[in-house]
Design a protein that fits this description.
The structure is a single chain. The chain contains 22 helices and 5 strands. By secondary structure, it is mainly alpha-helical. It folds into 2 domains: about 350 residues, no CATH class; about 120 residues, no CATH class. It has a 5-stranded mixed β-sheet with strand order 2-1-3-5-4, sandwiched between helices. It is globular, with a radius of gyration of 25 Å.
């Protein structure tokens, strides 16, 4: 029986995985409503480039993704399919460099397994279907790591450093956690040892200077945002102990069973690898994948007890390191285990068995807006709490108004447009002053009891008639009237 030569597999498998990702992630792109932080990006992408830079520097989001989305929308429109298509492309394309990382620096077995785990990850599917920066952040991280490791593989030509400089500059302007990627790469060089002849030298120092100069226009803003976050806190909470680490790995691994299996493989495989003399002396790639995964994981987790920043979406830059680490440890265990094929198949089968083509974001905006639209009359007043989901609401309710961006104060203008429709975004602690005989109320935080929701309590005591219209995922629309409701 004729067997396929490894070089043939190495040539064609990355393209096969690329095709698999393009096919799997194409389905259900526009199935979920625009929700969570997506309206933030799409809304700001409708602004002028000057406005995008101005308003995003007030928060914790670099402007590059919204700037790119701005021009994308100008060409292809702002439908759900259109605004999510760049994330789909980048998420699918990432697997190519996952495979190249595995095959070039480890083995064909490691490359194949890591690519399978990435391809059948629900976590990656979520961000492939979100109009947010995270698919782009993940793609740039993996591409950057591939270019970086090639510097150790005798590819120290000037163009190799230029390529790394360009990719990492884009990375830093895409997400502030890009600094962790630069830190991982730089610290690893410092710890690689002076006796390592393949270690990048003077040119890497010049590259860092050029990277610093390229990011200089935004550097003061980064220091300012970090100072504000460290002194005033962030919107996140502190991690709930080691359980937060397990929850992150659960996100990476789809379900508890594959999570536990992967953790056992990492522990057992790490024990064997670290116990080898050549681990510290020769196998640079193995050391790097450990460094890439564990250093930022421990650092971000520890710092988050003082400045909370440990969030699953922010940690997408170590997700591929996790898949590679599982594959590397499996490969090591397979060298001494008689059931080596089963060892490779088990995590892959578990990922494939728990994979979902459609990951629901639990925000049924079309159903909620449809319910409100059907109940609303010209005299009805609608209250939405809290204020943030108002942008997602308006995107579905009146996209023409969503696109209407004022040159002076776009956010105020958007809220004024809502008020002109008798729709009032309010804070949960606010008092509302309805003047209509008929009021609709939607709490975007989900179903709450009257004692927990101050607005709900106030409206219930002000109107004699109440009717609740339940929607999917625990949401409901409350209808209040001074006359009996049908």
């Amino acid at each position: 029986m004729q067997t396929i030569h490894p070089s043939t597999l190495q040539k064609w498998l990355p393209w096969a995985f690329l095709l698999i990702n393009f096919v799997l992630k194409f389905f259900f792109i526009a199935e979920n409503s625009l929700a969570n932080d997506e309206p933030f990006s799409v809304y700001h992408a409708h602004m002028s480039p000057t406005q995008i830079v101005h308003y995003l520097k007030l928060g914790n989001n670099p402007p590059l993704y919204e700037l790119l989305l701005h021009y994308w929308i100008q060409i292809f429109g702002d439908s759900l399919f259109s605004v999510r298509f760049p994330s789909y492309l980048l998420s699918a394309a990432t697997v190519y460099f996952v495979f190249r990382l595995g095959s070039y620096f480890f083995s064909l077995r490691v490359a194949t397994m890591a690519s399978v785990l990435y391809s059948f990850s629900n976590y990656q599917m979520i961000y492939a279907h979100e109009a947010r920066v995270y698919a782009m952040f993940g793609f740039l991280t993996v591409f950057s790591m591939f270019l970086y490791l090639r510097l150790f593989a005798h590819d120290k030509k000037f163009k190799a450093y230029i390529a790394l400089l360009v990719v990492n500059t884009i990375l830093l302007y895409s997400h502030y956690f890009g600094f962790f990627v630069i830190a991982i790469q730089t610290i690893f060089i410092l710890f690689s040892g002076r006796d390592d002849k393949n270690r990048p030298g003077m040119r890497y120092g010049i590259y860092l200077i050029l990277l610093f100069l390229a990011y200089l226009p935004n550097l003061w803003l980064v220091f300012t945002r970090f100072y504000v976050s460290s002194t005033e806190g962030t919107w996140l909470s502190k991690p709930n102990g080691l359980h937060a680490l397990y929850q992150l790995l659960w996100k990476f691994s789809n379900q508890p069973l594959p999570t536990v299996v992967c953790i056992v493989i990492i522990i057992a495989g790490s024990a064997r690898l670290i116990g080898k003399k050549e681990f510290s002396a020769k196998n640079l790639a193995n050391r790097f994948v450990f460094f890439w995964f564990f250093l930022p994981l421990v650092l971000v987790f520890s710092v988050s007890f003082y400045v909370p920043m440990f969030l699953d979406r922010y940690m997408i830059f170590i997700s591929v390191a996790y898949y590679l680490l599982v594959a590397v440890c499996t490969d090591e265990l397979a060298k001494v285990h008689r059931w080596r094929v089963l060892l490779f198949l088990l995590p892959c089968i578990l990922f494939m068995g728990t994979y979902r083509l459609y990951v629901h974001n639990e925000k049924p905006m079309y159903e909620i807006v449809g319910t409100i639209d059907n109940l609303k009359t010209d005299a009805t007043e609608v209250f939405i709490s809290p204020t943030e989901p108002s942008y997602a609401f308006l995107y579905v309710y009146r996209r023409d108004l969503f696109r209407e961006i004022d040159a002076d104060d776009p956010h105020k203008h958007t809220f004024d447009l809502l008020r002109n429709q008798h729709i009032y975004p309010v804070y949960p602690s606010s008092k509302v002053w309805p003047t209509s005989d008929h009021v609709l109320y939607w709490n975007a935080n989900g179903k709450m009891q009257k004692g927990e929701d101050k607005i709900l309590t106030q409206l219930s005591s002000s109107y004699p008639y109440e009717k609740i219209y339940d929607c999917s995922d625990g949401f409901s629309v409350h209808s209040y009237s001074k006359k009996p409701l049908q």
